[in-house]
């Protein structure tokens, strides 16, 4: 792309985003519920940053940072990374320029303790979570989704060989780059993650339900139907 066109596109994007209201939301649900499918278009339409803690931790592991070395053995076992590690990552990420209009938190908070810490962090900034999008789906459906999932690492676009295959097997529809399997997308690790979700994360949904912020969505529906419900919950981004 010519430099002049890139600059024009950047200016148009800035003008587009300057008109948006600030929105801070959480996408919550068990692994395979569709958070990775819904988050990218919501991020673009509402000018938000997508803070997927799982992806950030995996990147730290790949880069062999102090955080990555600390988290590696825990992640490989399919267990939850300690609160102090995750909370630190999230707090720093919120300060990025692309988060000026708000964010989508994906994979955090996983526990009520994390939710309370998040509320405290936001309170010091004079803001709060606006909506919590709860993508609910049965475990049997999730198993098929997760074991068939492939992702484009750079963009976060998610595919499924059973229900949403790429146009070319193993290739991203937009860039043509290779897709990858997540290291924790195995049957054994999925069972461990689902157990952790039901025991620790369901209370988070209840926590935000009591605050009147939870929007419950049946995630077995078509992805476009789900997107319409999310847009209604967050408010039309073009308004």
UniProtKB/TrEMBL annotation:
Keywords: Kinase, Nucleotide-binding, Transferase
Presence of keyword Lipid metabolism: no
CDD domains to which the protein is assigned, alphabetical: ADK
Domain Adenylate kinase active site lid: 149-184
PROSITE patterns from the UniProt entry: ADENYLATE_KINASE
InterPro entries linked: Adenyl_kin_sub (IPR006259), Adenylat/UMP-CMP_kin (IPR000850), Adenylat_kinase_CS (IPR033690), Adenylate_kinase_lid-dom (IPR007862), P-loop_NTPase (IPR027417)
GO molecular function, one term: AMP kinase activity
Pfam name, any one: ADK
Keyword Transferase: yes
NCBIfam families: adk, PRK00279.1-2, PRK00279.1-3, PRK14527.1
Family: Belongs to the adenylate kinase family.
Protein's name according to its UniProt entry: Adenylate kinase
UniProt organism field: Ectocarpus siliculosus (Brown alga)
UniProt lineage: Eukaryota, Sar, Stramenopiles, Ochrophyta, PX clade
